[in-house]
Structures are given as structure tokens and as C-alpha cells.
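Reopening this one. Same input as before:
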Amino acid sequence: MSIRVLIADDQQLVRSGFRVLLDAQPDIEVVGEATDGLTAVAEARRLRPDIVLMDIRMPRVDGIEATRTLTGTLPGTRVIILTTYDLDEYVFDALRAGACGFLLKDVRTADLADAVRTVSDGGALLAPRSRYG
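Same output, byte for byte:
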């Protein structure tokens, strides 16, 4: 059975890139995409993914607030925050909101897939600092 993933990011290229990377994995299926936090919550309620990859900075509703809403209403759906910002306050806010993981967007393909598997299996993770910065 595949791990069902919803990708929430306001940048179409980022969503497409993550979709290609994850769909190439035999045990992961991207079931939907969202362009902002409000749409992410609606799509998660409709699609019931196992994992939501959630950007922090998005229009209408940011990823932290969307995570708080999702974890409060869909306990079977786990959230991994994805961001370009390696700021401690984002990590703490994400964890307080109920996220199970925090990754930087420069994560390697294998590490992204492993993160999805780890969180799907009930684990949690915090990414190391950027490999490029």
C-alpha cells in the first residue's frame, strides 16, 4: 500500500519537482497539490493523505496555521514542513502546531523520500542545516 502525499506550496515549480521525485518512488503516491494553506486544509479533508508536505510561507493561510488546523481535525494525517528558511522560530512554531517533521527545500531526493517514510511510520525528524549554505 502506497503512502499518500499532498504537496502544499505556492510555487508551481516546487510542487511539480517534489511530485516527480516522490512519484518515482514505488511506495509513495502524490494524491494532490495545494497552492496555499486554505486549499491545503480543504484538499487534505477531501483526499485524506497520510502525509502533507507543507510550505511555511504561503498566501491566505500560512503553513503553520494550516498545520495547526490539520493536526487538530485530521489526526491520521501527519505534516512535514518544507521551507527555504533555516530559522529556529519556524522549527519551534511548526512543532507547536503539530508538525512531525521539518525539512529544508534543498533536501536530497533520497532524504525526502526517507523523511516521508519515517513520518508515515510514526517517527519524527528535524533536518540538518542546509548542505549549501
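So the earlier flakiness isn't reproducible anymore. For the record, The helical segments are 12-23, 37-47, 63-73, 88-97, 109-120.
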